[in-house]
Amino acid sequence: MTPDALADLHKAAFTQERPWSAQEFSDLLANPHTYLSASECGFALWRGIAEEAELLTIAVDPAHQGQGIGTNLMTNWMSEAARTCTSAFLEVASDNASAIALYIRQGFGIIATRTGYYQRPDGRADALIMRAGLSFPVSKKSSGGLRP
Questions:
Q1: Which of 1, 125, 137, 148 is 20 to 30 A from 8 via CA?
Q2: What range does the domain containing 109 cover?
Q3: CB neighbour list of residue 81: distance below 8 Å, 6 or more residues apart
Q4: Residue 137: CA count within 13 A, CB half-sphere
Q5: Percent helix, strand, coil in the chain (nearest 5)?
Q6: Does residue 51 lie within any of the structural domains?
């Protein structure tokens, strides 16, 4: 996926927050510690540094949500990260119930809260910081590549 395609998909998937620009995706992908796991309808962008992986963002085309694409993307990036990292973390808005459920199914647990972190049209939402260990074998449910 090109940075433009990533930005377009991110904008479609994130309607309550500022979507990331093509330039932001380009800059992130230029970093040798940043990896992309992508499918036709979604992507996960993550970085791995010092045995720790961070999910930067994950997006699935709204027309294809609820079809297991997010689960496959999570499984893929976590499998890749487990090669060199022992733990993973991410941040999610507390009002994003479907994402929180996905992350819990993948073994993440809430370790901290950033109160009022996300601005919303009708107020603010907390950010939940979630963590999972990667020392367990993660099953590969679908194939996915690194880097575009």
A1: 125
A2: 3-133
A3: 35, 46, 48, 53, 88, 134
A4: 3
A5: 30, 35, 35
A6: yes
- pLDDT score, position 15: 83
Give the CA count within 13 Å in the CB-facing half-sphere of 91.
10
Q: Is 90 exposed, middle or buried (0-12, 13-18, 19+ CB in 10 A)?
A: buried
Give yes or no for a contact between 146 and 37, defined as CB atoms under 8 angstroms apart. Answer: yes
Number of domains in the chain: 1
User: What is this structure's pTM?
Assistant: 0.85
In this predicted structure, the answer to whether residue 73 has a pLDDT above a threshold of 50 is yes
CATH number at residue 18: 3.40.630.30
DSSP states of 60-107: E-GGGTTSSHHHHHHHHHHHHHTTT-SEEEEEEETT-HHHHHHHHHTT
**Quick one: tokens of 38?**
């992508």
